Amino acid sequence: MERQFHFISGLPRSGSTLLSAILSQNPRFRAGMSGPLAGMFGALLGEMSGRSEFSVFIDDTQRQRVLRGMFDNYYADCPAEVIFDTNRAWCARLPALSQLFPTTRVIACVRQVPWIVDSIERLIQQNAFSPSSIFNYTPGGTIYTRANALAGADGLLGYAYDALKEACYGAHADRLLLVQYETLTAEPDRTLAAIYDFLGEPVFQHDFQRVSYDARAFDAKAGTPGLHDVRPKVAPIERSTLLPPDLFQRFAGDAFWRDPVRHPAAVGLI
To answer: I need a labelling partner for 194 at 20 to 30 A (CA). Which of 72, 128, 142, 204 fits?
Structure first.
């Protein structure tokens, strides 16, 4: 069966699991939480690169066939016609994805950055006796050291943020749609309608009162229960931040997609 592959990427704690749970209500679609394919993609590229003595036997056409075959075989048992693979790294792979899948689109979930840091910190504090994989299962530290680790170039947030900017300002920005967490939770009907239009798919009637997704076993193993929890009803949640004022302000101006001057014209925004 000829399948259509699309990708969900963007920033952590910005609604990718919620969006996947909603999209999965459509029987033609398959979507889920972040999976292993992006890591496998990078590993295969490395093994087929010049660091291998056998790289002289592999040209770009063969590399593309191997990488495309990885997707086809990983999802071989999936009956869905349209597959959304999720990983924050896909924004950094847009040039390659555009060649492997000429009609592919990438949905990048974004959120006001201080609230991403707040959301992660809230999980850490809720699971005070369970060191998290987010920080390599290392206990201790402070809210400031954890924020610094998140925002570093190799941190959960820093890497994803840099990859997002690379995609937004790159040559394939027209394949990208930014979906704000704030819009998704407040206006799910309008958000999904815009996503279907972006994908060129017929609209499906989703149930925003009965959304479900279960990743409790994965979250427990990651030392972060609740990491992929999805509330049954899609709605915004008002709350106060856990971040000290100076830390909150440190990230307050990072939402470049909300700035008309910095937002790339080729990139759609919901």
So the answer is: 72
Q: Answer yes or no: are the C-beta atoms of 110 and 185 closer than 8 Å.
A: no
Residue linked to tokens 């959120």:
111
Write the CA distances from 116 to 12, 156, 167, integer angstroms.
Answer: 7, 10, 20
Model pTM above 0.85: yes
Q: Which CATH number characterizes residue 129's domain?
A: 3.40.50.300
CA 165 – CA 88 distance, rounded (Å): 12
Range of the domain at 74: 4-269
- Overall size of the chain counted in residues: 270
Residues 102-148 pLDDT 10s? 999 999 999 999 999 999 999 999 999 999 999 989 988 999 999 99
